C-alpha cells in the first residue's frame, strides 16, 4: 500500500485509518471518505442539509416578521373587543329614555 507521497506503508500504518480512510504519512493524519470524520475516520457523519447563511437569515427574518404581524393582530383584536364591551356596558348602565312630546293644540 502506498501513501500519497509515494513511500510504502507498513501494515500497522495501513490499518491506522478506519472506514476506508487514507493515511497521510507526512501529517500523520487520515483523509476520510465521505460521511466519516474524526482523527482516524472513526465517526460516522449522518447526512444533513444545512442551509446557507443567506437562506438561514431570510428564514429567520420571515419568521420574525410573521410573529410581529401576529402580535399586532392580537393587539388589534383585543382592543376592538375591549371597545365593544365598554360600549355594551355603557348602554346597559345608561338606558335610553324616550320622552313623549305633547302635540300642539
TrEMBL record:
Record key words, sorted: Disulfide bond, EGF-like domain, Membrane, Transmembrane, Transmembrane helix
Residue ranges of the TM segments: 55-80
Domain of life: Eukaryota
Occurrences of domain EGF-like (ranges): 5-42
Paired cysteines (S-S): 32-41
Name of the protein: EGF-like domain-containing protein
Organism: Labrus bergylta (ballan wrasse)
High-level lineage: Eukaryota, Metazoa, Chordata, Craniata, Vertebrata
